[in-house]
């Protein structure tokens, strides 16, 4: 049973690796961004609530994101495993997820931290060529990520669930490392 939580800075390759592994393992790749977009598209009650925050230019509150994750992990295709990408982002969300997985009887998750040096992340994101990806903005996003996620890394390390993988390798090399973790 493959249940993975992906951590790593923006540009670490989480989404790319999660999608490839999810296809390989035939399990869903669950990204909070995708959940949100799907809920908005389907106009679910949670999607409608989220839309009201977004229309005002506000962040979708933790409680609502947690409800969306709970709804998604409760779907039948998640029973055989999943890869979570973008959640949890904080220790509070991690504690919520731990309780949720116990409630759903979906224990045994492993946490993968794709570790990539900041300078490499900046280069990768600048190469994407998005208008909002200036070096200053990217470095600020990295500061926020590091401050929010450092406690999360410790949280999972203390629970002996954390596996750090060097994300500063080729796409193929990182995939090989991840498959070793999954199939070991």
Question: What is the strand and helix layout of this fold?
Answer:
Elements: E1 2-7, H1 14-25, E2 29-31, H2 32-42, H3 45-55, H4 62-73, E3 81-85, H5 91-103, E4 110-115, H6 118-128, H7 135-158, E5 162-166, H8 171-183
Parallel strand pairs: 1-3, 1-4, 2-3, 4-5
Helix pairs in contact: 2-3, 2-4, 3-4, 6-7
Poorly predicted spans = none
Q: Pairing-aware structural class of the strands and helices?
A: alpha/beta
Helix content: 55-70%
Q: What's the tally of helices?
A: 8
Measured by DSSP, the beta-strand proportion falls in 5-15%
Ends distance: 12 Å
Averaging pLDDT over every residue, what do you get? 92
Shape: globular
Biggest sheet record: 5 strands, parallel
Describe the structure.
With 184 residues, this protein is an alpha/beta fold. It is 58% helix and 14% strand. It has a 5-stranded parallel sheet, with helices on both faces.
List keywords for this structure.
184 residues; alpha/beta; globular
Could you give a short description of this structure?
The chain is of the alpha/beta class and 184 residues long. It is 58% helix and 14% strand.
């Amino acid at each position: 049973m493959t249940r993975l939580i992906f951590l790593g800075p923006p540009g670490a390759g989480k989404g790319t690796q999660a999608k490839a592994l999810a296809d390989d393992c035939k399990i869903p790749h669950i990204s909070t961004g995708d959940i949100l977009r799907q809920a908005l598209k389907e106009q679910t009650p949670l999607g409608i609530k989220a839309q009201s925050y977004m229309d005002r230019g506000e962040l979708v509150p933790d409680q609502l994101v947690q409800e969306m994750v709970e709804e998604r992990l409760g779907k039948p295709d998640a029973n055989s495993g999943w890869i979570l990408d973008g959640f949890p982002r904080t220790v509070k969300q991690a504690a919520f997820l731990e309780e949720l997985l116990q409630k759903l009887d979906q224990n045994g998750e492993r946490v993968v931290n794709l570790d990539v040096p900041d300078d490499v992340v900046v280069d990768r994101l600048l190469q994407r060529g998005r208008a909002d990806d200036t070096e200053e903005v990217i470095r600020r996003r990295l500061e926020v990520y590091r401050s929010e996620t450092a406690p999360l890394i410790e949280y999972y390390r203390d629970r002996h669930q954390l596996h750090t993988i060097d994300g500063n390798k080729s796409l193929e090399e990182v995939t090989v490392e991840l498959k070793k973790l999954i199939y070991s």
